[in-house]
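STRUCTURE:
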């Protein structure tokens, strides 16, 4: 068994039990405007301090890190994680492999 296959097997076992050690969940992503929901891996971090463009304001929001091999995240998309519904609000970072998005409930 390759290391990749071993990792996928281990991740699947942890995700099926709920959040894994690192906070990853199996979530449901629906693009803006509707359509079929897609099951995605979500690394959810709660209460992250988000600082405004010029550093003058900050808020605390939940942030989801999404795997870009599974979806192409878009503003306003719906993400359901552990029974809570969120909307993707603003992209915080994108390294080409994963993207972190601030979330708002709704």
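SEQUENCE:
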């Amino acid at each position: 068994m390759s290391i990749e296959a071993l990792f996928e097997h281990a991740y699947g076992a942890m995700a099926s039990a709920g959040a894994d050690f690192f906070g990853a969940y199996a979530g449901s992503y629906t693009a803006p405007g509707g359509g079929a929901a897609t099951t995605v891996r979500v690394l959810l971090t709660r209460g992250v301090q988000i600082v405004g463009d010029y550093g003058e304001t900050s808020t605390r929001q939940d942030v989801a890190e999404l795997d870009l091999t599974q979806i192409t995240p878009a503003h306003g998309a719906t993400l359901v994680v552990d029974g809570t519904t969120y909307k993707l609000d603003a992209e915080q970072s994108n390294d080409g492999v994963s993207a972190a998005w601030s979330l708002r409930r709704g």
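REMARK: The helical segments are 3-16.
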